[in-house]
């Protein structure tokens, strides 16, 4: 059985904590209080990949996200995974692709707990950038980072 590992680290958009089981990311979001979780090779690899992403040297991750929940949630996250690095689509475009409403898509994206790996920051409002877990400025930072390293 593969152990669950964790690693917390500082990034340009704030402190992140990653939890992995083998090559599967379970969580990549704000820090949690963790007990009984080790820091091992997979968690260290995730930390390195996040560092490479923020330095502009990585455009995709070797980890796959664990996607659970409703059929809509799975469809939304799977579609977001298809958005190329440095590209954006609107909430409306994403909603049309998954057969839902922009509001429902926005709600699903607000529940993303595997930031960057599921690149919900690439989904923007038709006017402006829309919201993001770490705030609008962090979302703008990520979009500029990707645009400058295409």
TrEMBL record:
Gene Ontology molecular-function annotations = methylated-DNA-[protein]-cysteine S-methyltransferase activity
Where in this chain does the record put each Methylated-DNA-[protein]-cysteine S-methyltransferase DNA binding domain?
72-147
Q: Which SUPFAM superfamilies match?
A: Methylated DNA-protein cysteine methyltransferase, C-terminal domain
* CDD domains the UniProt entry points to: ATase
One Pfam family, short name: DNA_binding_1
The processes (GO biological process) annotated in the record are: DNA repair; methylation
Q: Which reaction equation describes what this protein catalyses?
A: a 4-O-methyl-thymidine in DNA + L-cysteinyl-[protein] = a thymidine in DNA + S-methyl-L-cysteinyl-[protein]; a 6-O-methyl-2'-deoxyguanosine in DNA + L-cysteinyl-[protein] = S-methyl-L-cysteinyl-[protein] + a 2'-deoxyguanosine in DNA
Assigned keywords, A-Z? DNA damage, DNA repair, Methyltransferase, Transferase
Q: Which PANTHER family does this UniProt record tie to the protein?
A: METHYLATED-DNA--PROTEIN-CYSTEINE METHYLTRANSFERASE (PTHR10815)
Q: Which NCBIfam families match?
A: ogt
- Indicate what this protein is called per its UniProt record: Methylated-DNA--protein-cysteine methyltransferase
Q: Which organism encodes this protein? A: Thermofilum pendens (strain DSM 2475 / Hrk 5)
